[in-house]
């Protein structure tokens, strides 16, 4: 009787179904995720200042239309999840961004912004989890943006707009989701592809296949 050795071919090694994914965070994952969170938090500081006058222009057109501005606070989690590709990345980067924005720039909403950061990060995180942290194509990025937009809507309506009219709530949810899809989802995915082309993400799977087909 002869035993037949099992050969590992290049095709079997490249099979995404058979290849085991390592979800353990490396030091470089923590460092890059932290950079994303801090940089996003600084952008949040600017957006906090810009959102009030912009919202003042949108509200008279249709109450709830200011939800279109929501994507400016949602991209951190989506971008972090797309780049790091590990469980918890979207939640970590979004929550860290909210913390940095509160700590450095301050805001009119106080520490409750951390609640928003937590829920918005979870909204994106749940979408990546539904795909078992194994699919990062454009449509998944858009869905993650939508998930963050839904989370933003729920949090804002409970914390800032309780008892609002049905028209306001419907408009705010629709515009928040649209903003989440376009800004947090679409722009984050384009940013990922741009970074991948520069070689800046060469130590990440997102950098190695960031230019793959949609």
From TrEMBL:
The keyword Iron-sulfur does not apply. Pfam families: ABC_cobalt. Keywords: Membrane, Transmembrane, Transmembrane helix. It comes from the Bacteria. The chain crosses the membrane at residues 27-47, 67-84, 91-109, 115-133, 140-161, 167-192. InterPro entries: ABC_thiamin-permease_prd. The keyword Ribonucleoprotein does not apply. This is Energy-coupling factor transport system substrate-specific component.
């Amino acid at each position: 009787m002869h035993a037949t050795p099992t050969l590992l071919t290049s095709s079997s090694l490249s099979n995404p179904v058979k290849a085991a994914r390592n979800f353990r965070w490396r030091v470089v994952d923590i460092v890059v995720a932290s950079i994303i969170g801090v940089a996003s938090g600084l952008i949040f500081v600017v957006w906090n200042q810009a959102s009030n006058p912009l919202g003042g222009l949108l509200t008279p057109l249709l109450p709830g239309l200011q939800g279109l501005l929501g994507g400016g606070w949602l991209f951190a989690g989506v971008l972090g999840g797309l780049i790091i590709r590990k469980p918890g990345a979207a939640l970590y980067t979004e929550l860290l961004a909210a913390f940095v924005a509160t700590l450095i720039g301050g805001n009119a909403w106080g520490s409750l912004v951390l609640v928003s950061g937590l829920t918005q990060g979870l909204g994106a995180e749940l979408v990546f989890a539904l795909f078992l942290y194994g699919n990062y194509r454009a449509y998944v990025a858009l869905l993650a943006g939508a998930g963050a937009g839904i989370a933003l809507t729920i949090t804002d309506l409970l914390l800032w707009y309780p008892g609002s009219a049905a028209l306001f709530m419907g408009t705010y949810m629709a515009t928040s989701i649209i903003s989440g899809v376009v800004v947090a989802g679409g722009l984050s995915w384009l940013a990922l592809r741009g970074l991948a082309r520069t070689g800046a993400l060469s130590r990440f799977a997102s950098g190695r296949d960031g230019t793959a087909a949609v």
